[in-house]
Design goal:
Elements lengths: L7 H37 L6 H14 L5 H44 L6 H15 L11 E7 L6 E9 L18 E9 L4
Antiparallel strand pairs: 1-2, 2-3
Length: about 200
């Protein structure tokens, strides 16, 4: 059996729009009335009433009673600001996490390379040379901003630990620190590997 679709939702929306327009009209009428009362009071007191301003406000009120096109512009401005903050946050954290991944990879690779050393001094030299040789493989890192510490681990004498620190203050993200909460400017990653005698 065929049923006629209900038109109640559309009617409900139309009634809501009319009610919103009535509220705007009532608000504009109240403002106009307040301005007229103030102008009469000022003229009775002997002051110069700003009749041109009142006439201009009345004209604007009459023209904008049924015009709600500005609502879209306001909504767009609100949504655009939120979207821009979100996009800048994605960009900033993407760059930062890319640099952090590079530092972590350098620490792991240099710790693996240090296994070839016969003693701790030679292992430290190999680890530092490996970082200096391969830091250029990572686009966001520079050798001048990287510091390497290589030594036996303080927690376990059988572990050799490599710590790589990168000063990320030159990354092009810190101008957004007033808008987005950003992490620390120094990125530190460590890797350890068991020394010989398996």
């Amino acid at each position: 059996m065929y049923t006629v679709p209900s038109r109640r939702p559309a009617l409900h929306l139309r009634l809501r729009r009319r009610q919103g327009r009535r509220n705007v009209r009532a608000w504009l009428t109240r403002i106009s009335a307040m301005l007229r009362v103030r102008s009469r009071t000022a003229s009775r007191a002997g002051g110069a009433a700003p009749r041109a301003i009142i006439a201009a406000c009345g004209l604007i009120a009459r023209r904008t009673r049924n015009n709600i096109s500005g609502a879209a512009a306001i909504e767009f401005a609100i949504v655009l600001s939120v979207f821009l903050v979100l996009a800048l946050g994605i960009l900033a954290y993407g760059i930062y996490l890319g640099a952090a991944h590079g530092v972590s990879q350098l620490a792991a690779d240099s710790a693996r390379a240090s296994v070839a050393g016969l003693n701790d001094t030679e292992r430290a030299v190999i680890a530092k040379d490996h970082v200096a040789l391969h830091v250029g493989d990572f686009m966001l890192l520079s050798l001048e901003k990287v510091k390497v510490e290589a030594a036996p681990s303080a927690n376990d004498v059988n572990q050799f630990q490599v710590i790589v620190r990168f000063d990320a203050s030159d990354l092009p993200i810190w101008f957004m620190s007033n808008i987005i909460p950003l992490p620390a400017k120094t990125i530190e990653r460590s890797a350890s590997i068991k020394r010989g005698g398996y």
